[in-house]
Amino acid sequence: MNDIGPAVPIRLHYDAFGRFVVTLANGESHSGVVPVRAFPFSAPDQWISLCDESGHEVLCLTDLAELDPKTRDQLAAELARREFIPRILHILRVDEGGVSSQWFVKTDRGDTRFELPSEDNIRRMGSDGVLLIDNHGIRFRITSVPQLDAQSRRIVRQYL
């Protein structure tokens, strides 16, 4: 594992096969790297690992602010591409169906419907947030329950 300090240059790009490549300051290149946030919700811009195709850490970035703007933007775009977590803005309704439930919600990516297999798939995230994981493993996030409308707050609180 290599930690980088402030303003230490690395280069990021995609190779001819569409794999994400990091070139370290010493000239060593690694293809097929995957950026992974250690703390995606509590510290999304800190402690980001770049892992090779075998899952071994190639580089650990302590803070995205240490990168030059172009590299930071490239890494942020790759992280966004890999992390699909729609944010729930409004809960339209929830239909109970035995153990599972159907949720009809408005997200930052549009209206959708998903099934929660059980109440175990609803988790608190910090003091105000909630994470819901549907039957396909897709995660939906509520960043702040108090900021939801009254109907949505009432629905969420009955499951917490």
Q: What is the fold's blueprint, element by element?
A:
Layout: E1 11-14, E2 20-23, E3 29-31, E4 34-37, E5 46-51, E6 57-63, H1 69-82, E7 88-97, E8 100-107, E9 110-116, E10 122-125, E11 129-133, E12 139-142, H2 150-159
Antiparallel strand pairs: 1-2, 2-3, 4-5, 5-6, 7-8, 8-9, 10-11, 11-12
Description:
There is one protein chain. This protein is α+β, with helices and mostly antiparallel strands. The chain folds into 2 domains: about 10-80, no CATH class; about 90-160, no CATH class. It has 2 helices and 12 strands, in the order ββββββαββββββα. It has helices at about 70-80, 150-160, and strands at about 10-15, 20-25, 30, 35, 45-50, 55-65, 90-95, 100-105, 110-115, 120-125, 130-135, 140. The strands form 4 sheets. It has a 3-stranded antiparallel sheet, covered by helices on one side. The chain has a 3-stranded antiparallel sheet with strand order 4-5-6, with helices on one face. It has a 3-stranded antiparallel sheet with strand order 7-8-9. The protein is elongated.
